[in-house]
Amino acid sequence: MTMGCPYGTHRVLEPAGVLPQPAWRLNSDPAIYDNEILIDVERLNIDSASFRQISDEAGGDPGRIAEAIMTIVRERGKMHNPVTGSGGMLIGTVRQVGPALTTDLRPGDRIATLVSLSLTPLRLEAVRRVLPEADQVEVTGTAILFETGIYARLPSDIPDNLALAALDVCGAPAQTARLVKPGQRVLILGGGGKSGLLCSYAARRAGAAEVICFDYSEESLARARRLGAAHRYIQGDARDALGVMRAVGEKVDLTLSLVNLPGAELGAILATKPTGMIYFFSMATSFTAAALGAEGVGSQVEMLIGNGYYPGHADLTLDLLRESSVLRELFEELYA
After folding, report:
1. Alpha helices per DSSP H over 92-217
2. What distance lies between CA 131 and its chain's CA centroid?
3. Are 90 and 115 in contact (CB under 8 A)?
4. Interacting residues of 215 by C-beta distance below 8 A, sequence separation 6+
5. Which class for 67: exposed (0-12), middle (13-18), buried (19 or more C-beta within 10 A)?
6. Residue 156, exposed/middle/buried by CB under 10 A (0-12, 13-18, 19+)?
7. Looking at residues 308-334, what average pLDDT do you find?
8. What pLDDT is recorded for position 85?
9. Which of 93, 138, 139, 325 has the fewest CB atoms in 10 Å of its CB?
10. Mean residue pLDDT across the chain
C-alpha cells in the first residue's frame, strides 16, 4: 500500500515540514494514494474576500478573473489566494476512492468538500464560466480529498449552486446557533450577504431579543428586510468604527463580523460590550488588528476565530433553506 499522511503532508512540495494549508505549493497529481479520494471538479465557490480581491484586480473582467484563478492554481497546486490567504470550496463527482479508506463513498457520488480550497490539491484544465454575482466559477479539473477531509453529499432537493453557496459558509450559521443565547442582542456586520442572511435567521431562531443587520449596500439591506429576521437595519460602513458604535447605540452582547473587506475589526469591538463576544467569520479579518485594537480601547471582549467547522454544520445550514421559503427564494435569486 502507498499510504499518505492523513493530514496531507505528503502532498506538500514547499516549504518542507508544514501542513497543506500554510504550504506555498502542493502536488496536485491526480494519481491518488491509498487513503485519498479523487474528485472530478465541476464548480468552485471562491471565498468572498478572495473573489472580491481578484475581481477588483481584474477590473471585473470575467476573462481576467478566470486567468487569475488559473494562474494561482497552476503556481500553487491549490486555489489559495496569496493576497487574502483564503480559498473556498468545491463540488464535484467522486472518481476514485482509495482502497485503504473506510467510507461509504463510491465513484459517481456527488459531493461538496467542507475543507478549504487553500489546502486542497487542485488541478484545473479550464475555467469554463465565471459567475461574479455568486463568487463561483464552473471548471474542468480534479481535486484530492485527504483522509481527514470532510464532505457533504449534495442534496437531491436543493440545486447544486444553491447548496454550494450555502455550504461554503455553513460554519457561520452553525456557530451562530451555538453562540446566541435567548434574550441576547446580536449585531451582524455584513448582514445582507449570504452568510449574513443565514446568520440573521439562525440568530432569530435561537431566541435573540434583538438582531441588528448592518450593511454597506442598500441592495443587501433590501434583501435582509425581505427575509425579516432582523429587528433593526442600519446602512453604513463597517470600517468606520465610531460610526458603527454610534449607529448601534447600546452595546450588544454578540457581534458577528461577516464583512468581506479588511478594516472592520474596531467597529465590531466598539459596538460590543466589554464582557461580550465577537465571532470573526470573515477571512478579510486581521487578527492582529483585532487583538491590538481591543487592547487599545481597553476592551476585554472575547474574540473567536471563524472556524468554518462545527459538527452538523452542513445539515443545519441546508435545513435553514428548507425551513424558510423566503430565505430559499433569496438564495435562488442570487445563485440560481
Report:
1. 160-168, 171-179, 194-205
2. 17
3. no
4. 189, 190, 191, 192, 193, 196, 221, 224, 233, 234, 235
5. middle
6. exposed
7. 94
8. 92
9. 325
10. 95
Indicate the pTM of the whole model.
0.87
State yes or no: pLDDT of 49 exceeds 90.
Answer: no
- How sure is the predictor about 1, in pLDDT bands with cuts at 50, 70 and 90? low
Find cell 450577504 and name the residue.
193
Please state, in angstroms and as integers, the Cα–Cα distance from residue 322 to each residue in 166, 179, 257, 287, following that order.
12, 22, 25, 34
Q: Which residues in 236-266 are b (16+ Cβ under 10 Å) and which e?
A: bbbbbbeebbebbeebbbbbbbbbbbebbbb
pLDDT of residue 284: 84
Under the banding of pLDDT at 50, 70 and 90, the label for residue 283 is confident
By the 8 A CB rule, do 266 and 289 touch? yes
pLDDT at residue 131 tops 80: yes
* Of residues 187, 249, 250, the one with CA closest to residue 224: 187
The predicted-structure confidence for 181-234, as pLDDT tens digits, reads as follows 999 999 999 999 999 999 999 999 999 999 999 999 999 999 999 999 999 999
Compute the half-sphere exposure of residue 79: CA atoms within 13 Å on the CB side of its CA.
33
CA distances in angstroms from 35 to 2, 5, 89, 247, listed in the order given: 8, 8, 20, 53
Question: Is the confidence at residue 336, as pLDDT, over 90?
Answer: no
Q: Which of these, 239, 331, 220, lies nearest to 293 by C-alpha position?
A: 239
DSSP 64-104: HHHHHHHHHHHHHSS---TTT---EEEEEEEEEE-TT---S
The one-letter code for the residue type at 96 is Q
* Phi, psi (rounded to 5 degrees) for 186: -125, 130
Q: Which residue has the higher pLDDT, 48 or 182?
A: 182
Which cell numbers in the block locate residue 63?
Answer: 476573462
What pairs with residue 41 in β-bridges?
Answer: 92, 141
The neighbour count for residue 211, using CB atoms within 10 Å, is 28
- Among left, alpha and beta (phi > 0; psi -120 to 50; other), residue 173 is alpha
